[in-house]
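Continuing the series of single-chain predictions for the mutant panel. This is the parent chain; the variants come on the following pages.
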Amino acid sequence: MKHENILIIGAGGQIGAVLTEALREVYGPDHVVSSDLKPLTQQSGPTEVLDALDGQALEALVKKWRITQIYHLAAILSATGEKDPMWAWNINMTSLFNVLEIARQRSLNKVYFPSSIAVFGREAAHQNTPQYEVLIPETVYGISKVAGENWANYYYRRYSVDVRSLRYPGIIGYQSMPGGGTTDYAVDIYHYATQQKNYECFLRANTCLPMLYMPDAIRGTIELMEAPANRLSVRTSYNLAGMSFTPEEIAASIQKEAPQFKITYKPDFRQAIADSWPASIDDSAARHDWNWRPEFDLDAMTRDMLQHLALQYAAKAQAPA
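Parent structure:
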């Protein structure tokens, strides 16, 4: 058993809920403390209520649980952030500074900070976007992630804080509902298909975006955090890729399993956000430095998503009212 005490901030989110349980399998349930702004239920280990904007409360939890690593997942995502940019900026940046400062002051072993393909804008190469590319994002979420990457690099070089990061593409999983991101259609669409409903997509049919299935995202995160520090060449954030597809391609994949499924298109404000992002990502640095490899392609993900969601909806239907 590895002797680490881990705090996950934002454990109630799409990634956090799954990552919490994965880390508990690695480090033991009692060594992974989950936290969120609201109380978390059905937890297999310790949990705390934490406002990530409250630096004193964060410090108290780090002392209480003798924390050695922090996974800072709390953030306002792209589509939600555009509704109130200053609110999103304050939450995303203040919470990050609180984590970086407590890591510096208490010499924590490691910090994980997720970034995103939202750091790229229309000036970046659209296909096979390289690791070191111009970063001119067009959302407050992307701006906060670029700033966060640079602060992570600064704390590593100035204070030797071991901050590690991945630029997630769209994350698709059956474990929780979408959280306000532009790529969330690729989660919603499976819920509609499972319930035998047609889906109206908020992006154009030919909008190609990079995506990653949740099991690959979780495995990649843990692999990065467990990689030897001397193997890591990127201290801003690693590009991470799984697959790239369009709404019409994911619909066609679903129709292989559910031929009756239909999709229509009604692009909204999220189309402009998607248009500013890459269609595919070059993750060769991650592949070279810590042997990253995705395991799921589109059809394999579709089969797994539909199977798990079918079981979930069947269980809900049988549950007492």
